[in-house]
Model the fold of this input.
Amino acid sequence: EIGEGYELYVLNGKGFPRSVDDLAWVCEQYLAKTIVFEEVEFPAEGSSIKAAYWAMNDGTYRIGLTYGMDSDELRFVLCKEIFHVLFDDESRRNMDLSDHVSDYGLTLRSSETENPKCAVAWETLAEIAAMEFLFPHAMRAKTLAEVNPMDYARIASLYGVPRPALEQMCSAGFTPVFTDTYEKADLGHEECS
Done:
């Protein structure tokens, strides 16, 4: 697990908030993933696209980040894109960004229970992995049990995660979504496993 590697190799690796810069360092040093980060000349505001990753022919990766995100959103999005790199497999990609966004939107609007396209399922899993790294489920469950009423703004600030993502992951409906998405990505598509 990447969290265990992070705790082993990073000074104060068991502390929170976790460093996304250190996560990138662990990926490069111990997992041999070369990642180049760059800001793209596209504003985050008003866009559903906050970042993208590209798998290069030479085995390296590029992550392009839109500008104008607040620090918590930037951390979460960057972490999510790093997990895309860690999960990367050609069968899980849709490198046509326009097509991928369209597929993702159709899946979100669909009331049918059919399996999403492989790249769409892995998009959701990358978001889940990012939150699990930044604010693990066991810590979220403990916080939910101890803090009443829940102060999402304060908790999000403590862990350096965006409040909307935190609220989504702490919602009563999150566990079935996680389980369903995992099964569809890992078991429902032979080409995705």
Remarks:
- The beta strands are 35-43, 51-55, 61-67.
